[in-house]
Amino acid sequence: MKRKTIVAVALLSILLTACAGREGQEVVSDSTVSTLVVTEEITTTEDAIETSDVTVPESVTVPDIKPLTVDDPYTFNVHVCPKKLYDAYGPEEWESFFNLCDALEAGEDSFECSSRDAYEWCFSGGPLSKYYPVARFYVTADYINGYQNGIGHFTYDIPKEEFMQKQKDFEQLVVDILNENIRKDYTDFEKCVALYEYMVTNYTYDYVQCANNDVEIMNTLPKDSFGTYRTFRDKEGICDNLSAVYNFLLLQCGVEAVQFEGQNHAWTYVTIDGEGYFIDPTWGLHSDCFHDLDYFMMTEADREPYFGDDMHPVMFYYEHKNKDVDFSATDDKYAVLHGGDFVALDTENKILYYDLYGELKEFHYEA
Length: 367
Known about the structure:
367 residues, alpha+beta, four-stranded antiparallel sheet
């Protein structure tokens, strides 16, 4: 299966005959459409970009294009979390966690914290791992004396200057990924597509970690041998890490994303225009068995044959307070993409091109 990333599309009229899609897909026949432009990657340099080796009909030309320029670049957002989890837990926990993030940014070792429960929640593993991952294995809480009179204390496990440099490098890595793959004027759907293709093109599954994924073995490894930060850095990991990376990138560019997990797998749940969908960046990785859009924008019914109802949103340390947060996924407007491989995205005309068993198809999506 060919691999390619998000692209810009040049507009040159050509004659293209396309076959009818699946049920509900628009049929294009002997109509004029835009020339398809495919590139391996988007950078902010002036270097030439090689075209993809994706197979497209002879009538579709694939010229070189200049790199995408970023006029309004992304910057790192220290305070990211899914709105649904914010609603599930409430402001006391999350505002305490954001205070912790601010303290880490400044190299401090204490932060304002609403309660002992909130203090323990901040350091329970999940919040730091998912939303401030460099600190997950480099700071330590004192669960006995660390919280006193509205102030939480912690210590650094490596020299503070080394930690702050790691965080600085991590933030630069994140904004580079965003600025090389998406623009701020992309819709949430386009951001999901672009970052999904970035993930499935650039990351690999860590079978060694998967085989050794138990507490006793993990405790013998260096702290940065696993986890979200390590997957960002080395571009490999297991499902928990891969979905966490994808979620974090989406949250950084304003898309609502939260991790779902079961006994044996972790996926991503996104909310777009009020509708929920499942996306699996792990099973979207390069495979001779699967197509990269098979597990993109799925419903609960799509997911159920694989895991039944053994999936739930990741909750940290203790049960969340609000039981009424909606995590449903019933809208099937993107089902036509399943079975296909991504080819290119025309963000001007709102068309996703994909290869369905050797035939080039168009999916017209809403602005």
